[in-house]
Design brief:
Blueprint: H1 18-56, H2 72-92, H3 100-116, E1 123-129, E2 131-140, E3 151-158, H4 168-186, E4 196-202, H5 216-226, E5 230-238, E6 267-272, H6 276-289, E7 294-299, H7 311-316, E8 321-325, H8 347-364
Parallel strand pairs: 3-4, 3-5, 5-8, 6-7
Antiparallel strand pairs: 1-2, 2-4, 6-8
Helix pairs in contact: 2-4, 2-8, 4-8, 6-8
């Protein structure tokens, strides 16, 4: 019988294909890429989270839902605010150095109201621009023996209006609120203060004096710095009277609109990042005492609107300062035009705000 030969039986697995090698390599690369992306996300998330906590997140909770019924005290305050706004924006009207007689009338109205409230003396710091116009200030001294009696809290508002406009919201509303607060703290039944409290009415906040040497609040703040005043907080009351419940009505500077409500039914506490502690202290006290919506922001001073009032002048002199506002041109369609008249304002809501601000100011004047 003849011999036969058979093929050997293979016992080893075939070598890996090129495709399989590419899959393993891709998996390794993808894992490395995912780790890099995760590290990048962490690097980005940390400053964003810190920024949100430091600049946007505020203590307490903003009031939500229907407002409670107006109290008798708030109803009386509403009438008081309307009276002063109408006196300035309707009875006097255009208030600027281009209308010197009206400016003088506005100053006389403020001084008369302060004297009626019981302020026997007032300070005038004059600004020279076309006509001589005064900043007007009154002070309530701290209680004798208080360890912080040498410190000062300033509450202020500008009483001029944009050229050719009656300026009801901007800024007769702020002046009316400042007068209302001055009356309440001057009341003989008011509690003694641990810090001196000063109410100041500024000239020349509006263009063309805005952020120039002729700006009344800058003249005043420099005067305070020159004589060594220890101002520990300044609140600029700027456009406080316009509110709306219409969705989408409220606007904001770029990159901010996703963080806040689209209804203009709140009062805002605004400051620069440097003054974030003051912003948070003020809004925290407001939320603890007032049943009214509120929002706060401590943003870089370069964000449009953050420095658009008299608090900016105090920044220039090294004083901590913030603005309390209805957000002005980001909400009010009558801003800087001749339709900014007293009938456009909501005095009942403004009364709730001013009542809440009374608690804020008292807290600032406490030890």
């Amino acid at each position: 019988m003849a011999a036969t030969h058979s093929a050997p039986i293979a016992t080893a697995l075939p070598p890996a294909s090129h495709g399989a090698r590419r899959s393993w390599a891709s998996l390794i690369i993808n894992r490395r890429a995912l780790k890099r992306l995760l590290a990048l996300a962490v690097i980005v998330a940390i400053p964003l989270t810190y920024g949100y906590i430091a600049m946007v997140r505020m203590p307490g909770q903003s009031h939500a839902g229907p407002l409670p019924p107006l109290s008798p005290a708030q109803a009386a305050l509403s009438i008081e605010l309307r009276r002063d706004v109408e006196a300035l924006a309707s009875g006097i009207g255009k208030r600027s150095t281009f209308h010197p007689r009206s400016m003088a009338d506005a100053a006389r109205h403020i001084i008369s109201e302060l004297q009626t409230a019981g302020f026997a003396e007032h300070e005038e710091t004059f600004v020279e621009r076309g006509s001589r116009v005064p900043n007007i200030a009154v002070e309530i001294a701290a209680a004798p023996g208080s360890p912080t009696s040498g410190e000062v809290v300033v509450v202020g508002a500008h009483y001029d209006s944009y050229q050719g406009t009656p300026g009801a919201d901007d800024n007769a509303s702020g002046v009316a609120a400042t007068l209302a607060l001055a009356r309440r703290f001057r009341d003989p039944s008011a509690l003694p203060l641990a810090r001196a409290l000063r109410f100041v009415f500024f000239v020349n906040e509006e263009p063309p004096s805005f952020m120039t040497d002729d700006m009344g609040s800058l003249v005043y703040a420099r005067h305070c710095r020159a004589r060594g005043d220890r101002i520990v907080a300044m609140l600029s009351l700027e456009t406080l009277g316009f509110y709306t419940d219409i969705p989408g009505y409220q606007t904001y500077p770029p990159l901010v609109h996703h963080l806040y409500p689209d209804r203009g039914d709140f009062i805002a506490f605004i400051g620069r990042y440097t003054d974030r502690d003051l912003v948070k202290r003020c809004i925290g006290e407001f939320r603890a005492r007032a049943a009214f919506p509120s929002e706060g922001a401590a943003l870089p001073a370069t964000v449009p609107g953050v420095g658009w009032s008299d608090h900016w002048a105090f920044w220039q002199c090294g004083y901590p300062a913030i603005m309390v506002t209805d957000t002005a041109n980001y909400r009010n369609p009558h801003y800087h035009i001749d339709s900014d008249t007293p009938d456009k304002l909501d005095y009942d809501r403004t009364a709730r705000v001013v009542e809440g601000l009374e608690s804020v100011v008292r807290a600032l004047c406490s030890p």
